[in-house]
Amino acid sequence: MARPTRKVTLAIAEDQIVRLDRLTIDIRAATGAIITRGEAVRAIVDAVPLMELDLSSVKSETDLRCAIINRLLDVARV
């Protein structure tokens, strides 16, 4: 059963919208599945807490982005 959802307003830059759209287009091209922007964002939001990020020095969006990237790179090296 799907979880209840609530609409929120999220301001993101135009290039971020393009990247989000590219992600959904790439998924469709690879699998034929249609994933909406909302589904992609929800998947990302659900995945991040599972990454065991070190948030001890995060004080900005840039810091958070770096923490996520560093964790992904650490996992990729294993």
Description:
With about 80 residues, the chain is an all-alpha fold. The protein is built from 3 helices and no strands. The protein starts with 13 loop residues before the first helix and ends with a helix.
List keywords for this structure.
single chain, about 80 residues, mainly alpha, 3 helices, about 60% helix, about 0% strand
Helix content: 55-70%
Rounded to an integer in angstroms, the radius of gyration calculated over CA atoms is 15 Å
Query: Which sequence of SSEs, written as H and E, runs from N to C?
Result: HHH
Low-confidence stretches: none
Main sheet attributes: strand count, strand direction, barrel closure: none
Determine the N-to-C terminus distance.
Answer: 35 Å
Mean pLDDT over all positions: 94
> How many strands in all?
0
Number of helical stretches of at least 4 residues: 3
- Percent of residues in beta strands: under 5%
Which structural class do the helices and strands define? mainly alpha
Which overall shape is indicated by the principal axes computed on the Cα atoms?
globular
Count of discrete domains: 1
Short description:
By secondary structure, the chain is mainly alpha-helical. The protein starts with 13 loop residues before the first helix and ends with a helix.
Outline the fold blueprint:
Blueprint: H1 14-31, H2 37-47, H3 61-77
